[in-house]
Design goal:
about 15% helix; seven-stranded antiparallel β-sheet
């Protein structure tokens, strides 16, 4: 590719998890070799797990190295001004063969104080759901620290928490402090702040292959939890060949594009854009070139590439920082 800036794809960073399965291979053809692969990190600058470019003139370079060299061109002028040379988001696909642990993420203030990290605001888009698959999101009714601790000690925590049956296309927005768990039988596209800080509250008393239970973070979580009932499900429109807003928050904007024809995109260079293909396939046309993407692909459009076309038959998540 002759031009300096072009759509970037990255090698997936695959994570074994006690609750993982094989759907990332069967659905998306990710190169997994384990029967308990729970996560494919598509785009990451988390320390120790930095994405590496797959193709083109930047092939073999880490995302961090490319940003270091071209911060405004990759991140965008506004994102660079706000975050410096940090890539502020983390993109994943998750396969939950079993229930994930019940957990919570701290806000920016608490995460900075305790871990020198961002907090972890996140959203989920349901890509595949087995019959009656569910998630846990927040409390059924407003609760309190005291009620929570009592139920945790009595192993009756689930009685306080809201469980929701989900379907393909459902979207949930989880602000920091929301107690949550992805249930068995779900494949999720996850967009979140760049953070790997999770406080595990309850893990159903299960043990790993060596007979060990996973660490819980009961004390750390007490000050991180929002004990009030919260609304997490997002309704959105599905107008064809347009960007339909799903989530618009200070950390990211996510739109849904039901693509049937061709749309021309013009950006102002303020932010990068990321596309996650959640169904079908599409092409990006730029400067006389074409690149193809399919379900399960994630692509980073550098901010400097501010005019391009998208065509195909696909459902796409479009993410940027506004």
């Amino acid at each position: 590719m002759s031009n300096t800036f072009y759509p970037l794809q990255f090698h997936p960073i695959l994570k074994e998890r006690i609750w993982g399965g094989e759907k990332l291979k069967t659905l998306f053809n990710k190169p997994i070799t384990s029967k308990i692969t729970g996560e494919s990190w598509e785009l990451s600058t988390v320390e120790g797990d930095v994405s590496v470019v797959k193709q083109g003139s930047f092939a073999g370079k880490s995302l961090s190295a490319v940003i270091e060299e071209f911060p405004n061109e990759i991140l965008g002028t506004a994102v660079h001004a706000k975050f410096g040379k940090q890539f502020p988001l983390l993109f994943k696909f998750l396969d939950a063969r079993e229930d994930l642990s019940i957990q919570v993420h701290p806000n920016d203030e608490l995460a900075k104080k305790r871990h020198n990290s961002f907090g972890k605001t996140e959203m989920w888009y349901v890509m595949q759901a087995d019959k009656d698959a569910r998630i846990i999101v927040g409390f059924k009714e407003n609760s309190s620290k005291e009620e929570y601790v009592e139920n945790l000690e009595n192993k009756t925590l689930l009685s306080l928490l809201d469980s929701v049956t989900v379907n393909v296309g459902d979207v949930f927005f989880l602000e920091t402090g929301t107690v949550h768990a992805i249930g068995a039988g779900l494949v999720i596209a996850e967009i979140q702040q760049t953070s790997d800080i999770t406080y595990r509250l309850y893990d159903f008393d299960r043990k790993d292959a060596n007979g060990n239970t996973r660490e819980l973070h009961v004390e750390l979580a007490l000050d991180a939890i929002n004990y009030n009932k919260v609304e997490t499900k997002k309704e959105y429109t599905t107008t064809i060949d347009q960007s339909n807003t799903m989530v618009d928050c200070p950390y990211f904007t996510t739109n849904f594009i039901p693509l049937k024809n061709k749309i021309n995109v013009k950006k102002d260079g303020a932010s990068f854009t990321v596309y996650m293909c959640v169904e079908g396939s599409f092409e990006i046309e730029f400067e006389g070139q074409k690149l193809s993407y399919k379900k399960g692909d994630t692509v980073l459009i550098p901010a400097a590439l501010n005019e391009f076309g998208i065509s195909g038959n696909a459902s796409i998540l479009e993410i940027y920082i506004s």
